[in-house]
Amino acid sequence: MPSLYSTKMSSKLTNVLSVVEQLEIQLPAGFAAMETQVAGHTFDAASLGLLQDNNGCVLKPLGKPECGERELNFYENLQLAEKSEDSNLLLPLRSFVPKYYKMVKLFVNNRQHTFLKMEDLTNGMRKPCIMDIKVGKRTWDPMASEQKRRVEEQKYLRCKQVLGLCVPGFQVYTYAVSKALRYSKEYGKNLDVDGFRKTIALFLNAQNGEVFKPLVFEILKQLYSIRDWFKVQTIYNFYASSLLIVYDFDYMEKHLKQNETHTNNGISQIPNGNIQNNHSTHFNLEKCPEYSTSIVKWVKVKMIDFAHVFPTENQSLDTNYIFGLENLIMVFEELMER
Ligand SMILES: Nc1ncnc2c1ncn2[C@@H]1O[C@H](COP(=O)(O)OP(=O)(O)OP(=O)(O)O)[C@@H](O)[C@H]1O
Ligand SMILES: O=P(O)(O)O[C@@H]1[C@H](O)[C@H](O)[C@@H](OP(=O)(O)O)[C@H](OP(=O)(O)O)[C@H]1O
Description:
Bound molecules: adenosine-5'-triphosphate, D-MYO-inositol-1,4,5-triphosphate
Strand order of the largest sheet: 3-4-5-7-6
Order of helices and strands: EEEEEHHEEEHHEEHHHEEHEEH
Keywords: ATP-binding, Kinase, Nucleotide-binding, Transferase
Catalytic activity: 1D-myo-inositol 1,3,4,6-tetrakisphosphate + ATP = 1D-myo-inositol 1,3,4,5,6-pentakisphosphate + ADP + H(+); 1D-myo-inositol 1,4,5-trisphosphate + 2 ATP = 1D-myo-inositol 1,3,4,5,6-pentakisphosphate + 2 ADP + 2 H(+)
GO molecular function, one term: inositol-1,4,5-trisphosphate 3-kinase activity
Enzyme class: transferase
CATH superfamily: Inositol polyphosphate kinase
Distance between the termini: 56 Å
CATH topology: D-amino Acid Aminotransferase, Chain A, domain 1
CATH class: Alpha Beta
EC number: 2.7.-.-
CATH architecture: 2-Layer Sandwich
């Protein structure tokens, strides 16, 4: 039996405090609108947002038919990776995306809808800091109409056209207030390159320009793995796909308090890693064993949103995605250098 949930949804978040709409949505028992959704389609008259259940899963609605079908195919292909002739590439890709369980049908507002059930990347985090970063200068797919191309090319202009990156939304917990601060796509649309850098620092809770380096280091490690994969894969083009970066501020705060090597402002005194600004190289992990802690449990970098994933045309690298990814890596590397 469907039950009535009164759900607070943030439809148009401002740069500090959200304008919150009170919507009443009929959802099946055991499901709620996802509290920590920071971007993408949310509940309104025209669309559904993501749901969460009580078992650490999120349910993403299929959305527009062509988009939904592509995303469903993408996840189902990955599920069958062992049997694919591309298993050597698809199996590692699985570790870069949320665990996918199955397709489920649920009634929302008395109408049946199809959802993709997958792992909630924020599950178990007390104070999840979440940033959605859309990757690539080109965020329209080969089937896009002229109008869709034009619209996409005009958005997030000063950031997306230079870095191949944009921020459609994020939330961050800080030392100053106990509630998460939410930033909307309107905030993201006003960013230029410098604003993007500052936004990443803000998201990481940088203090006087200094970040908690083990956190940045772990994010970089995961980004490097994704980049390594993109440097060899020629199966897919990922248009309008995002990287979701998630970390638990609660864990970070506790970790900082416990650790003797920290200064009064709580920022690590561990020396910097050895940065080489050549794109084909990585930080030298062996030189920084102190960074390889249990941190991996509370920091996640995963690829999400595969509604515009297409097979490559000439078995070429996805240079559009790689360009954005390289720039993102550089922004994090700069933070390690400080
Ligand atoms: N597996 C997941 N775990 C946790 N949060 C998730 C997960 N998948 C999506 N989200 C949340 O939902 C948001 C939107 O996800 P996604 O980009 O897949 O939706 P969308 O509606 O297709 O977006 P768009 O409007 O950009 O096409 C993300 O920014 C994130 O906050
Ligand atoms: O970043 P913004 O300004 O929110 O723009 C949205 C974003 O580009 C989404 O990826 C897109 O959904 P699709 O991926 O489904 O195309 C959506 O199209 P829509 O409004 O037609 O749903 C856009 O409005």
